[in-house]
Amino acid sequence: MTKSVSIFGATGSVGQSTLDLVRQHPEQYKIVALTANGNASQLAALAREFSAEIAVVADDNAYEELKLQLEGTSTEAASGKEALIAAASRGVDWTMAAIVGCAGLPPTLAALRCGKTVALANKEALVSAGALMITEARKAGATLLPVDSEHNAIFQALQGGKIDQVRKITLTASGGPFRTWTREQMAGVTPEQAVAHPNWDMGAKISVDSATMMNKGLELIEAHHLFPVGLENIEILVHPQSVIHSMVEYHDRSTLAQLGSPDMRIPIASALAWPERMMTNCAPLDLAEIGRLDFERPDEDRFPATKIARAAITAGGAKPAMLNAANEVAVAAFLNRAVQFLDITEIVTRLLDSYSPPEPSVLADIFAIDKETRVRTEQLVEEFKV
Ligand code: NAD
Ligand code: MG
């Protein structure tokens, strides 16, 4: 039976990896919606290749170009935030949520509300609105499949036991490109150095997050929402080879792990075929060739981001949404060369300490916090400008 599939963030790193898997098994999948931010020509090319029913650009300025490029095809063109939500509400069998940032929250929620299966790469949505997303998913009877490699590994390891039999979850972390660097050495790094991840080929924002280790901070919050074992039972372990993608230790002291080459198509394939398994042409894991696996405790003096994230989720309320929005703005400022690398976590810390909005209870509250935090962080960026 063919699975109907929509991909939000189709032109990005995760979106492309997902389409690559579909390309390998064209008879099994039917593409319904493909979306992008503003790259109309790339999106149109994908929509043509996969005969998508609808292609959506979030940016209205890209609409005319998209329409032009789709002329003579059966693909409908649309643009804007409402069109993204409408596309997500089409109720397909499987949706990939791979937009980067909190911008992915509205379509992801819309897809969850259809009660179908949503593969989640868009961790920022879960960090900002985790409790709400989990509640909505449960209400609608939707299935949330984690795609982030660590969370996908935990999801797979949890097939070997029950969540209430878990003693500890270990999130592995590569440590990023500056794992062995001093603070002094990190002070002057360029965006090019920060996005050059040693193991994974990813979008710019998550690559910078990996370099600051905020990615692991966001993933800690993500894990806390997806796997309710208690925050104190989720630990981080630096593992530079990125071969063990995470581990689950049960009460009996059995530890189950998921291993694989550092290729996002592997966790995506597990979510795409779930509950079955699919063939992929990904590189097999050759442990003899790799030779050794190393492990280190995280150094939160050099990389304070995981400490900041743990404090934000412990405080709860508005803090996780503030953490995410401040980090998005600070990372964008670093990529634009407006602030320096070490300023990113400094700006996030300053923002978190600067104001305390009331606890969000509905989605509109989250968006208000997100918006206000962005304005305040932009002001902080001005102070830090190099
Ligand atoms: P990317 O930058 O390569 O792609 C992002 C996609 O989102 C693009 O299609 C872009 O057009 C779209 N987009 C950007 N801003 C948008 C907006 N405002 N509105 C609508 N669409 C917008 O990012 P990526 O590396 O593919 O990451 C996507 C998500 O998956 C992120 O949340 C990231 O943390 C997560 N993730 C990525 C990887 C990876 O290997 N790349 C691994 C784990 C998790
Ligand atoms: Mg990850």
UniProtKB/TrEMBL annotation:
Binding site for Mn(2+): 148, 150, 219
Main EC class the enzyme belongs to: oxidoreductase
Span of domain 1-deoxy-D-xylulose 5-phosphate reductoisomerase C-terminal: 144-227
Residue ranges constituting the 1-deoxy-D-xylulose 5-phosphate reductoisomerase N-terminal domain according to the UniProt record: 5-130
Amino acids binding NADPH: 11-14, 39, 122, 124, 203
Positions bound to 1-deoxy-D-xylulose 5-phosphate: 123, 149-150, 174, 197, 210, 215-216, 219
Biological or metabolic pathway of the protein: Isoprenoid biosynthesis; isopentenyl diphosphate biosynthesis via DXP pathway; isopentenyl diphosphate from 1-deoxy-D-xylulose 5-phosphate: step 1/6
One Pfam family cited in the UniProt record for this chain: DXPR_C
Domain DXP reductoisomerase C-terminal: 259-374
Segments traversing the membrane: none
Domain of life: Bacteria
Swiss-Prot/TrEMBL catalytic activity: 2-C-methyl-D-erythritol 4-phosphate + NADP(+) = 1-deoxy-D-xylulose 5-phosphate + NADPH + H(+)
InterPro entries with a match to the protein in the record: DXP_reductoisomerase, DXP_reductoisomerase_C, DXP_reductoisomerase_N, DXPR_C, DXPR_C_sf, NAD(P)-bd_dom_sf
Entry's EC annotation: 1.1.1.267
Cofactor(s) the protein requires to work: Mg(2+); Mn(2+)
Keywords in alphabetical order: Isoprene biosynthesis, Magnesium, Manganese, Metal-binding, NADP, Oxidoreductase
GO molecular function: 1-deoxy-D-xylulose-5-phosphate reductoisomerase activity
SUPFAM superfamilies documented for this protein: 1-deoxy-D-xylulose-5-phosphate reductoisomerase, C-terminal domain (SSF69055), Glyceraldehyde-3-phosphate dehydrogenase-like, C-terminal domain (SSF55347), NAD(P)-binding Rossmann-fold domains (SSF51735)
Function: Catalyzes the NADPH-dependent rearrangement and reduction of 1-deoxy-D-xylulose-5-phosphate (DXP) to 2-C-methyl-D-erythritol 4-phosphate (MEP).
Family: Belongs to the DXR family.
UniProt protein name: 1-deoxy-D-xylulose 5-phosphate reductoisomerase
Gene source species: Parasphingorhabdus flavimaris
Lineage: Bacteria, Pseudomonadati, Pseudomonadota, Alphaproteobacteria, Sphingomonadales
Gene: dxr
